[in-house]
Amino acid sequence: MSAPSHAPQPQAAQPQGARPQAARPLRAHPGRPLRGGARVPGDKSISHRALMFGALAVGETRISGLLEGEDVLATAAAFRAMGAEIARGPDGVWSVAGVGLGGLSEPDDLLDMGNSGTAARLLMGVLAGHPIRCFLSGDSSLRARPMGRVADPLRQMGARIETRSGGRLPLMIEGAEAVLPIEYDLPVASAQVKSAVLLAGLMARGATTVLEPAATRDHSERMLRHFGAELRVEDRPGDLGPAVTLVGEPELRAADVAVPADPSSAAFPLVAALITPGSEVRLPGIGLNPTRTGLFATLKEMGADLTIENERVEGGEPVGDLVARHSALTGVEVPPARAPSMIDEYPILAVAAAFAEGETVMRGVGELRVKESDRIAATEAGLAANGVSTRSGEDWFSVTGKGPDGVPGGGTVETHLDHRIAMSFLCLGLAAQKAAAIDDAAAIATSFPDFEPLMRGLGAEFSGEAIDD
Ligand code: S3P
């Protein structure tokens, strides 16, 4: 495919406090095919971890391909406030001068984690091993999300944590002088909780074990090894996830990180191409870690013309180039066991399902209710506003497909500060009968600051207005 390659300029995302208060509606117009190549930004999960492990290591870590979205910049700001030197070079490569394990100093102000659950929860794990007192908060979406799932094991390890009622932010955390190693049976399949316990375990004398109910993304494990930690991952019987054991007090040594492109961000141009007639897009260097690729497997089962080329390993993570073409899709039942490997992709899968023939049923997805928004409710409301029927229960939902040409569109969707709801419904608007709008595009900057120019480079048409119903 000899299509023009679109390389957006990195934008310096704004600090949280500087985000404009006025909502910025955005409308996506149908009728144009998406064609060409586009570089989606670096993986959010890996970017947070690269900054954090770099800050805890001894020496200078260089990070290429770092996601420069608000969530990751919140992590960078927090570690800077605690003494790590973090800077972006003119070539776009970031450098982190680590303070060494246990070397963070008390910040003189609240740490604002913005919209980012990953930043807040992983940071709590780090702080559990530092005998300093920190105060964490975030935006209204993050302040509504459960932190007790992280506070509980960290208290067992010796940290003192005081949350607002309901285990919510803001919270105060004072780390332990001597962290206790524990064996922790995770009550929810959450890579964030697993990672928080392992990060606290770095500072423990002895081995910390996390038992996962189902395998979740293993970027922390891969990167801990990359920085020199000793880690054992043992399979367990049946559908159970592995037992992950970390030996405490390793010497973390600076290590360069090449961040692959984020499969969760790739999902948006990819699904937009699948549902928009005449489309063909190529997305190079996408992370293909098997703990992240559930959406691609599901789309293929739905009949998507989706191919992976040039599979290779870069920076310890499998990557490949994705090519997606407009496809006739059929509804499927998504197995609950697949949920952890595509937990962030259900809103955009639901959009793909709206353009399929037949019903798509997604079970075992109760965790979606505590993401940046209640994503089951937000997705159902967005689909209803655009003429698509859904059904749901506490931990499942289904979408009744309208077929490739049958999605009416014409609605304005409430995004609830949720970047993935925002991008999903802009994708819907590109292929519906009538334009669809979102009430506020600001949240997109948390994970994909260049979403609009990148999609425009592929042929998408957006304009800055809501739709009056
Ligand atoms: C993430 C883990 C997931 C995911 C989030 C990023 C991570 O959350 O939803 O966007 O980087 O560890 P849970 O582990 O809580 O499911």
Fold and architecture overview:
With 469 residues, this protein is an alpha/beta fold. It has two domains: 26-41 and 260-463, UDP-n-acetylglucosamine1-carboxyvinyl-transferase, Chain; 44-249, Enolpyruvate transferase domain (UDP-n-acetylglucosamine1-carboxyvinyl-transferase, Chain), CATH 3.65.10. It contains 13 helices and 25 strands. The chain has helices at 44-56, 70-81, 117-127, 140-143, 148-156, 191-201, 219-226, 263-275, 294-301, 346-354, 375-385, 419-431, 451-458, and strands at 5-6, 26-29, 35-38, 60-64, 85-88, 94-97, 111-112, 133-137, 160-164, 168-174, 183-185, 207-211, 231-234, 243-247, 257-258, 280-287, 305-314, 317-325, 333-334, 359-363, 390-393, 396-400, 412-413, 436-438, 461-463. The protein has a five-stranded mixed β-sheet with strand order 1-3-16-18-17. A four-stranded mixed β-sheet has the order 23-24-2-25. Strands 5-6-4-15 form a four-stranded mixed β-sheet, with helices on one face. The longest helix has 13 residues, at 44-56. The radius of gyration is 21 Å and the shape is globular. Residues 45, 118, 190-192, 195, 216-217, 343-344, 367 line the site of shikimate-3-phosphate. Shikimate-3-phosphate binds next to helix 6.
Layout of helices and strands, plus pairs?
Blueprint: E1 5-6, E2 26-29, E3 35-38, H1 44-56, E4 60-64, H2 70-81, E5 85-88, E6 94-97, E7 111-112, H3 117-127, E8 133-137, H4 140-143, H5 148-156, E9 160-164, E10 168-174, E11 183-185, H6 191-201, E12 207-211, H7 219-226, E13 231-234, E14 243-247, E15 257-258, H8 263-275, E16 280-287, H9 294-301, E17 305-314, E18 317-325, E19 333-334, H10 346-354, E20 359-363, H11 375-385, E21 390-393, E22 396-400, E23 412-413, H12 419-431, E24 436-438, H13 451-458, E25 461-463
Parallel strand pairs: 1-3, 3-16, 4-15, 7-8, 11-12, 19-20, 23-24
Antiparallel strand pairs: 2-24, 2-25, 4-6, 5-6, 8-10, 9-10, 12-14, 13-14, 16-18, 17-18, 20-22, 21-22
Bound molecules: shikimate-3-phosphate.
Residues 45, 118, 190-192, 195, 216-217, 343-344, 367 line the site of shikimate-3-phosphate.
